[in-house]
Prior knowledge:
Layout: E1 2-9, H1 14-21, E2 27-32, E3 39-44, H2 48-59, E4 65-72
Antiparallel strand pairs: 1-3, 1-4, 2-3
Amino acid sequence: MRAYVLTQVRTGMEQEELDALQHIASLEEIDFLFGEYACILTVQATDTATLARLITERIRKAPGVVQTTTLLEAPFA
């Protein structure tokens, strides 16, 4: 399953967040944004339990991250 995780980061902590997130194998892509969110992360996970662990144990613990919003891909058949 694919998900997109939007992160809000404390001002000035963007580089620290990027440095920490680059080492997560399940992240397919990291893009910086202007506006309310600092980054959008494209994540691949085998199931929702794995995704939940990835978000709570790795992404939310990255330096500077104060909030995440997760969007699950809904493929049309």
